Amino acid sequence: xxxxxxxxxxxxxxxxxxxxxxxxxxxxxxxxxxxxxxxxxxxxxxxxxxxxxxxxxxxxxxxxx
Length: 65
Known about the structure:
This protein is mainly beta. The chain is built from no helices and four strands. A four-stranded antiparallel β-sheet has the order 1-2-3-4, with no helix packed on it. The relative contact order is 0.21.
């Protein structure tokens, strides 16, 4: 994913080095991922990089209970 393909919607910084962010797709990746699809991310600032975990909602996928 390139930076122009999603927009930052919201951030929640836990501390100086970690946090969560909500992104929205600016353009469709496929018929299943239309523009506007929300993405959840977590990030961690390292000395020389930012580690990012991005999750994507899949139709019918349920979180374990």
